[in-house]
Design brief:
Helix content is 73%, strand content 0%. The chain is mostly helical. It has a single domain, classed as SMc04008-like fold (Orthogonal Bundle), CATH 1.10.3340.10. It comes from Pseudoxanthomonas suwonensis. InterPro entries: SMc04008-like_domain, SMc04008-like_sf. This is Deoxycytidine triphosphate deaminase.
């Protein structure tokens, strides 16, 4: 019988593959606007979980685990400057959910 944790881990790995290989066109700011979280949030949650499990991890290590490469490299390859429209939408979403 498959453990629930194994299923959750498989789903998490699939989410990371989807975001970092198949949908690199989706910017973190767009994820924040629409879903209230982004790849960096996932890295923060990953780091917190590691700490809770007694495995200290810094921000860059967590981001590399989530992005599959150093964050600076992923950012240079895939991240674009936010447009004024994205920034305005982000601010409106922040006010709605803040």
């Amino acid at each position: 019988m498959v453990d629930t944790v194994q299923l959750q881990a498989a789903a998490f790995r699939r989410l990371l593959r989807h975001l970092n290989r198949e949908r690199t066109d989706v910017q973190n700011i767009d994820l924040m606007i629409l879903a209230g979280f982004c790849r960096n949030c996932l890295a923060d949650w990953y780091r917190e979980a590691a700490g809770d499990a007694g495995q200290p991890m810094d921000r860059e290590q967590a981001r590399e685990a989530v992005y599959g490469m150093p964050f600076a490299e992923w950012k240079a390859l895939h991240q674009q400057e936010a447009t004024p429209e994205q920034l305005a939408a982000f601010e409106a979403a922040r006010r709605r959910h803040g």
